[in-house]
Amino acid sequence: MAIELSKLLSVTIEKNASDIHLDVGRPPTLRLHGRLRPLNIPVLQPQDTEAYVKEILPERCKKDLEENGGADFGFAFETKARFRSSAFKQKGCYGLALRLIPSKLLTFEQIGLPEAVRPLLTRPRGLILVTGPTGSGKTTTLATMIDTINTERDCHIVTIEDPVEYYHEHKMSIITQRELGADVSSFAEGLRRALRMDPDVILVGEMRDLETISTAITAAETGHLVFGTLHTTGSARTINRIIDAFPQEQQEQIRAQLSTSVIAVISQMLLPRADDSGIVAAFEVMLMTPAIQNNIRENQTHKIVSAIQTGGNKGMVMLDDYLLMLYRQKKISYDDMFEAAQDQEEIVSKLNDHQSPKR
Prior knowledge:
single chain; alpha/beta; 7-stranded mixed beta sheet; globular
């Protein structure tokens, strides 16, 4: 008989792991500080993982799992924590990946979010993009920004999420949180509906298709502060990804719209701390300036990098420069800095200008 799911989830919370993986043929495995750590218990059998899935799978997700081979949903474990859960089929068996959602909202200082981002939260309109690979902390960053607005401004905030991870209470603002599958059928539909709900601030959990991207840009242009995410790294790549989602004949118009609607792109990733005590976030911050607006309009997004590099006095920072800062502060290892760098030759060159790398 396999260990009870409740005990596994309790261990995940106690050890403050970011995820737990439950797969056939392997012991339950935690992700601790970015690294996989199997628990010292027997490997899971097909009947074990099937029982785990059936224990927590919502009724509304059963059809999705059976017909499409996967289902994503939020799961509350007693009153201890919430998990973002992914149930799936592989080689005819069931599996589960559960991500622990921190129980309390973090501050700017706790996640290391650059202070240049804070003034953006008072803007009446515009598009703020938070980007990075899966598991880079985008949801946590967005939750912190939404909580700041909720605490300091009287707004109506509407979020469309898949699933809802952080629960926000009404503070100075009214906050409406809608979940894909439970409350609304798609991001695009949720965004269209949100525009009729008298919103001031809209969060779109993922801008994954042309309709959602187009509606988000329009919402930002028509007097709403819109937050969205993309699985890109770096500001120039993010802008290019959005433009490339549109047909060729629309791209010139979209470049013009983006140059006036986007107010910031925040890219981030998580790295293990050098002392193995946890993880630390690295950021890139692009703030819209007349020069960058022109780069986007003229299809010269490759020039955005130099605009960010020379925009330090405005609060802008390149991801590689942030990584270098974390390494010099001894917060991350040389190897992790090097592996995460966008331009590895350049980051080594900058480092060698000051010191020899210690591996």
